[in-house]
Structure formats: C-alpha cells, structure tokens
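Work Package 3 (structural annotation) set out to generate three-dimensional models for the target panel prioritized at the project kickoff. During this period the team completed the workflow that converts sequence records into discrete structure tokens, so that structures can be stored uniformly alongside our sequence database. As a representative example, we reproduce one entry of 167 residues exactly as it appears in the project archive.
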Amino acid sequence: MQAVAPLAAQARRPPAPHGASGFARAGYGPPCCWRAADPSAQVLSEALLLAVGQAPEGAPRVAARYSAASPGAWCPPYIFLALRNFMSAVNRPEPALWITLAAIPANGLLAYALIYGAMGLPRLELLGAGIATTLISIGMCVAALLIAAQRAPFKKYRVLGRCWRPD
C-alpha cells in the first residue's frame, strides 16, 4: 500500500495521466484478499493470548475486543490507506488529513461511550472499544471513497472504475 503514492504520482504524468487509478486499486485489492483469507488470528486469539502469558481471566475479554475490531481490520483500513496515498500522489492530501483528524476524536468519544456506557449506549467494556474502532474505520473508508469518487481532482481518475478487474 505504501507503494501507491510514488507509483501513482509517476503514472499520472503524460501520456497516460489516468493510469494512477490502477495503482490505487492495486493498493487495496491484494491486502483485502489476504486479510479476508486469514481469519485464523481472530478464531485463535484467546488461545494465542494464553500461549504468550496473558492472564486467564483477561484473555477472553481481550479476545472479545479483538473479535469486535476484526471486521473493521479487514478491508476498510487498507482501502483508506491506499486512497490516502493516492490523494497524496495527485498533490491533494488534505481530504485524507481532515478525515483522519475527524476520526481521532470521534473514535475516542465513541470508544468512551461504549466502554463505560455513556450517552445512553450500553456498557460493553473492551468489546465496546473494538466496536468503536470498527465503526470509525468503516466511516473513514466510506468518506475517502466518496471523496475519491465525487470530488475534483480525484473524480477524473475514476478510482472506483473497473474495481472487479485487476490492472
């Protein structure tokens, strides 16, 4: 995913300035497939924690938090990172910066509310932290996708075009 920025920046030069979008798609496709194909860490998280010396009374709670965060750790962060690098490659990193700056306090507030049961939300402790992280990760991904698909100068690159076909 880190290679998206330099490759997309180089590909956006003439004669084929729209080749940069292929690198953005290539940046998030393989990591998503890899992560979706490897759910073993989620399934074995409690056993792995116990194997490395986690206290038996704490391992199930930490494993529950990991399980709640796992869906958000599959594709949304990878897509966001690839799009962030793509936005930098076209000399417009500001949207990704603003998304990140908005997500940090939103994650803290939502995690606090779900951990301690504030603002009318249920008290979920560590599970709540995992749910908050997942929801914020998905929100960051959706925001970056919407900006890349609908706003200039990203729209002309058609980052979401032909997603089903590898370049």
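Helices lie at 4-11, 20-36, 40-43, 45-51, 59-69, 76-89, 94-116, 126-150.
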